[in-house]
Amino acid sequence: MIQSLKGMPDLLPVDTLRWQQAEHKLRRLFESYGFGEIRTPFLEPTELFSRSVGESTDIVEKEMYTFIDKNGESITLRPEGTASVVRAYNQNNLAHLQSLWKLYYLGPMFRHERPQKGRYRQFYQVGAEVIGSMNPLVDVEVIQLLYEVGKAFDIESPLMQINSVGDATCRMPYREKLVSFLGARKSEFCETCQKRIDANPMRVLDCKNPNCQALLETAPMMLDHLCDPCKDHFSKVTRALDTSKIPYVVNKKIVRGLDYYTKTAFEMTGGGLGAQNTVGAGGRYDNLIEETGGKPTPAIGFAIGMERLLLSSRAALVRPVTRIDVIPLDTPQAETAFLIANRVRQALGDHAVVTTLLDQTSFKSALRLANKNESTYVLILGENELQKNTIMLKNLRDHTQKEVTISDIENVLMGEFNVRPA
Ligand code: HAM
User: Fold this and answer.
1) 15, 266, 303, 311: most buried by Cβ count inside 10 Å?
2) Which of 125, 288, 307 has most ligand 1 atoms within 8 Å of CB, for mutation?
3) Share of the chain residues as helix, strand and coil, in percent rounded to the nearest 5
């Protein structure tokens, strides 16, 4: 039997119902903040990600699905959405149409990581990007939207953590201080950290190894070395978070695994997820648009991992519609049952799911299936009923039943569902 690729799970109807409801809720929430949906291709030129996400990041170094296309061009399955949104913004000259863009996206991303709970090789992100504003209140609005998602999905023990990763002015001198601190203790750090000290020293702060964490206790932190404009921006963001009553903690060690960030960086963690507990994360990327060929334009956004959001969510699944199953008691009644199901389905439209339970070995097994389907009604058609031109309407919730003339069945059910005739 052919199996799916590792870390690329199927979503079966039992899962997709929950996903569809989650997607619907997210779309409504994002749209209520003025975001419009953008859909970009899954495949992009490799250079887009190596330049935006950063050559020395784990994503670009190790995790991208990169292929040579038939025309010899290097192409990559998108590992994240921000780079594509920025490319689309530049390519479609969106800046000329309006100065501020609020875009959201929802779709699969691909990273060749070691699969574990909450970490997959194909996973879905829902992301939001605001392009065109430096205003710290926009940072707060974006963080608030992430917080609102956490609330709407009732995620377990949500924690919003924020930091500032500085900008071109303050990061270089800070980086030197950090490298000299780390260099003096290099041999004491784990192997991964030792490699990162040269390539991407800020990522050392992210190491989960307890020994490395202990060594970092006295390390210089970016937040304590911000230039005045970055410091001012950060204090405006935290002040507005306070007045907006958005709970958060400042975590000086948040550095993010992508190189494009400037100033505000944030992550929201949730419970029930084990090691992969970041539900959503993001930050400012004020230089990315210019670095990828556009005019200097500030921007900020975040992305949420859909799988993690659903794993951490305690919000109940809402059964969207009532189900009606039509049960023919024997083969001679099957065709009429099938036609009745069609008529009822047409009459009730979106109000109900209507199926015919064909090929059942007994009434008992048909009823068991109807109960498993969580059906509210069954319509039972036996030889007796067919002779009298009637059908039995049984309510599985309150266990009442009544015999209805076949030609009346739509009207009776439309009455039960309060559906007006078209
Ligand atoms: P990221 O932190 O790489 O940021 O990913 C955002 C979220 O995607 C994570 O917090 C996690 O929930 C989910 N995620 C990432 N990798 C996996 C995986 N292998 N399996 C399951 N879920 C995963 C970004 O991607 C940025 N583009 C976010 C952003 C938008 N920054 C600014 N705008």
Assistant:
1) 266
2) 125
3) 45, 25, 35
